[in-house]
Amino acid sequence: MSLTLDAPVFTLEPLSPVLGAAVSGLDLRQPLPAETKRAVYDAFIRYHVLCFRNQHLDPDQQIAFTEQFGTLERHMASNRGTFNPLVHIVSNLGADGKPSGKVASTGWHSDKSFRAQPSLATILHAQVMPPEGGETCFASMIAAYDALAEREKAEVDNIRVVHSWEMSRARMGAKATPEEIADAPPLTHPLVRIIPETGRKALFMGEHAAYFENQPMDEGRARLDALTAHAVEERFVYRHKWRMGDMLMWDNRCLLHRANPNFDAALHPRVLHRTCLRGSAPA
């Protein structure tokens, strides 16, 4: 599929039956003309994940690209890059600059769901990747919701979920700092949110979702785990195999994602630059 506008042409190629499209023909170091920007955003809404091929942006250029679509979201204090607080370095490198053997963000999540205005989009740009593995995996929460029985849809439509950075850190065996807890106190969001551009319903959960509001914590946690197991079944999932120069832009409102640790993280570096766009309160 090619789009011909007053601006340069770009090409869209679907990446899987459920979600994702590759975008070719754009140089994102340059500002997008208005019509091109609208077409890119329309493709983002349609495909949920866009992969811009053959991009080579420095951090300032990535920030400039991201800002064309909204307001940049700050990162947690512990996750900020060393050169710009608006760019998060996603890396398996240790303090010595060598592969540490550890891979972060391997649990299914939606970025910054613990914020009152969770992220609209994440932009992730490959810098150094392992020769094999290290994919980023995505699960469609629209498709997962649509696949529920009508009785289950009616039930989850009325549930609110407590999202907690502190509790998600604890489940990963880490401890949130007092600064982080003050910066991101627990809050609630609807379990099912509506995507305003399309009116479609999507499950909104992930590892930052702690338990159901107004239900016993253990019971709500178990129900969330069961719902997540349904939502990340293979029929809803796309695994992105990175190429150097890839830059992904995805919709956090209707996707869960995770890093795949299926490579030797003690031998091969995996480094990406991340920016996030602030979204709106789920409804």
The overall pLDDT, averaged over residues, is: 92
The count of domains is 1
Number of helices: 7
Radius of gyration: 18 Å
CATH topology: the name is Double-stranded beta-helix
Helix content: 10-25%
> Mind telling me the CATH superfamily name?
Clavaminate synthase-like
**Shape type:** globular
Question: What characterizes the major β-sheet?
Answer: 8 strands, mixed
| CATH architecture type | 4-Layer Sandwich
Provide the structure class: alpha+beta
The amount of beta strand, in percent, is 25-35%
Give the CATH level 1 class: Alpha Beta
- Secondary-structure element series: EEEHEHEEEHHEHHEEEEHEEEE
Uncertain residue segments: 2-8
Strand tally = 16
Instruction: Give the termini distance in whole angstroms.
Output: 33 Å
Can you tell me about this structure?
23% of the residues lie in helices and 26% in strands. The protein has 7 helices and 16 strands. The strands form 4 sheets. Strands 1-2-3-4-14-6-16-5 form an 8-stranded mixed beta sheet, with helices on one face. A 3-stranded antiparallel beta sheet has the order 13-7-15. It has a 3-stranded antiparallel beta sheet with strand order 9-8-12. Helix 1 (34-47) links the parallel strand 3 and strand 4 (49-52). The model is unreliable at 2-8 (pLDDT under 50).
